[in-house]
Design goal:
With 313 residues, the chain is mainly alpha-helical. Helices cover 73% and strands 1% of the residues. It has a two-stranded antiparallel sheet. The mean pLDDT is 86.
C-alpha cells in the first residue's frame, strides 16, 4: 500500500507549516515583550492613572478622589515645583557640558600609545563604577567642615572654615562638582572609543595637506565625533534627570531648598507629603521632559546621517 499523502492534503500541510513558522518569532519574542511590559510600560500606565487622582496615603491606601488634570494644574501653581525644575535644568546645563569638555580633552590626550597607557585609561574609569550613594557619602565626608580633608587643608593654608554643604551657593556647586567628578570618565570612555575608530588615513592625508592640530580638530575630529557626542549627551541627560541618591546623601535637598532637585521633590511629594497622585504627575512631567530631549537629539543625529548620505551621493 502506498504511504503517499493525497494531493489535496499537501497544500493544507504546507499552509499549517507556514503558519507555524509565522508564529515562531512571536513565541520567541513573547518573554521579552512580557518583561518590557512589566518593568516599563505598565509602570508608566499606572503612574498616568495615579496622577489623575488625589490620593493621600496618610488617609489610607483606599482613599482617593478623581481629579483629572487637577494635579498637573496644582503643580503649575507650586513655587517649589518650579524651583526644583530650575535647579534640575541648571544641574544638567552646567554639569554635562563640563563633563563633555573634560572627557573630550582626556580622550584626545590619551589617544596615543605610551608606557602605562592602558593602566591610566583603566584608572580614569574608576569613578564611573562608584555607587551613587557611596560617591555622595565620600563627598559629604570630604566637605565636612570640622574634620573633612578639604577644610583641613584650607585651615593649614590660613583660610577660614567653610561650611560647604550648609551654604546654599556652595551646596549647589558641591553636588554639581560631585557629579562631574563621577561621570566625566563616562564621556571619556565613549569619546575615546569613537576616536580610535576614526581611520588614521584621514588624519595622515590631512597632515600631508598641511593641516595642523586645530584645523584637524575642527574639520575632521569634531564632525566625525558629533554622532557619538550627541549620543553621550543624551545618555547623560536621561541619567541626570533622575539623579537622586548622591544628592540625597549629601544634602537631602538642603539647606532649605537650595539643592531640592526635581527627583528629590518628587520623593518628598510621595513620601514626605504622602501625595502619590502629585508625585505621579511629577513623574509623568519628567518623562515628557526626557522624551523632548531624546527626540531633539535623535532628530539632530538623524539629520547628520542624511547630510552624510547626500555628501556620499
Amino acid at each position: 500500500m502506498s504511504s503517499r499523502k493525497p494531493a489535496t492534503e499537501l497544500p493544507r500541510a504546507q499552509g499549517q507549516a507556514g503558519k507555524a513558522r509565522g508564529r515562531a518569532p512571536f513565541l520567541f519574542l513573547a518573554p521579552a515583550i512580557i518583561v518590557v511590559f512589566a518593568v516599563l510600560i505598565f509602570p508608566i500606565i499606572f503612574s498616568l492613572f495615579v496622577s489623575t487622582y488625589n490620593w493621600p496615603l496618610s488617609q489610607g491606601a483606599g482613599v482617593r478622589r478623581f481629579v483629572g488634570f487637577g494635579n498637573y494644574a496644582a503643580l503649575t501653581q507650586d513655587p517649589e515645583f518650579w524651583n526644583s525644575l530650575k535647579l534640575q535644568l541648571g544641574f544638567i546645563f552646567i554639569a554635562i557640558p563640563i563633563e563633555l569638555l573634560f572627557g573630550f580633552a582626556a580622550a584626545l590626550l590619551l589617544n596615543r600609545e605610551f608606557f602605562g597607557a592602558r593602566v591610566v585609561r583603566s584608572l580614569l574609569l574608576l569613578p564611573v563604577f562608584f555607587l551613587p550613594i557611596l560617591s555622595g557619602m565620600t563627598w559629604r565626608f570630604m566637605l565636612q567642615p570640622r574634620y573633612g580633608p578639604l577644610n583641613a587643608l584650607l585651615l593649614k593654608l590660613g583660610a577660614p572654615e567653610i561650611t560647604w554643604l550648609g551654604n546654599p551657593a556652595t551646596a549647589y556647586a558641591a553636588i554639581i562638582v560631585q557629579d562631574i567628578w563621577r561621570m566625566w570618565p563616562f564621556m571619556f570612555m565613549l569619546l575615546y572609543a569613537a576616536l580610535t575608530a576614526i581611520p588614521q588615513e584621514l588624519m595622515e592625508a590631512a597632515e600631508i595637506d598641511g593641516a595642523g592640530f586645530w584645523l584637524k580638530l575642527h574639520s575632521l575630529t569634531i564632525p566625525l565625533l558629533t554622532p557619538t557626542i550627541l549620543t553621550a549627551v543624551l545618555l547623560r541627560i536621561i541619567d541626570a534627570l533622575r539623579v537622586f541618591s548622591e544628592v540625597y546623601v549629601m544634602t537631602e535637598g538642603g539647606p532649605g531648598s537650595a539643592t531640592m532637585l526635581f527627583s528629590l521633590y518628587t520623593q518628598r511629594q510621595a513620601f514626605g507629603y504622602q501625595k502619590v497622585g502629585m508625585a505621579s504627575a511629577m513623574a509623568i512631567f519628567l518623562l515628557v521632559i526626557s522624551i523632548v530631549f531624546a527626540l531633539t537629539l535623535v532628530r539632530k543625529n538623524m539629520s547628520l546621517d542624511v547630510l552624510e548620505e547626500k555628501a556620499g551621493a
